[in-house]
Amino acid sequence: MSAPATEQASIEFCRALLAGPVPEEAITFCAYLLAERAAVWWAHECLSHLTDLLDGQDQELLMLVGDWVSEPDNPRHHAGLSRAAAMPPTTPAAWIALAAAWRDDGSAAEATARPGARLFPAAHAVNAGILSGLARVALADRFSVLSAFVELGIQTAEIDAMRQSADAF
């Protein structure tokens, strides 16, 4: 992101990014704003709206990620994520699967054991996955889809903040 930090609250800053000269920075900001599991869920939901633009392998990866988000402690999902992390992330859903694998401790350890593999925050892969999916959207529709993705990210952040606030009591 090239936008300088401001004194704005996170949600207002995100909306300002969306209205700014590089609205894609709002996607990047949301990816890092959200807790990792929430970010993976958000990315899954965003790409689920683009399934007609994804091939069969990406759709399978999205189902795997959806299963993981629903049951992150299920060993079957860990194995699937390990296999997904071994593939190069060349498609939108492959990036999201990699984000889930990086978030998942066991798969992250296996991913870093591969020669040349480098572990990044899950937000890095979430950002890459959503933006690469967005790049497949027709130019005429891109800003409206981008806006919907950012609003979903903002809603997710607000829900997560309320949940954390309730957990504090």
Total strand segments: 0
What structural class results from the helix and strand content?
mainly alpha
Q: Report the portion of residues in β strands.
A: under 5%
> In the residues, how many domains can be counted?
1
Radius of gyration equals 16 Å
Mean pLDDT, to the nearest integer, reads: 85
N→C terminal distance: 35 Å
Poorly predicted parts: 105-118
The H/E string reads HHHHHHHHH
> Helical stretch count?
9
Estimated helix fraction: over 70%
Question: How would you characterize the largest beta sheet?
Answer: none
**Coarse shape:** globular
What do you see in this structure?
The protein is mainly alpha-helical and 169 residues long. The longest helix is centred in the C-terminal third of the chain and has 29 residues, at 139-167. It has one domain (10-167). The protein contains nine helices and no strands.
Can you summarize this structure?
This protein is mostly helical. The protein is built from nine helices and no strands. The protein is 72% helix and 0% strand.
List the helices and strands and how they pair.
Elements: H1 10-19, H2 25-33, H3 36-48, H4 56-70, H5 75-86, H6 92-103, H7 105-113, H8 122-134, H9 139-167
InterPro entries: DUF6931
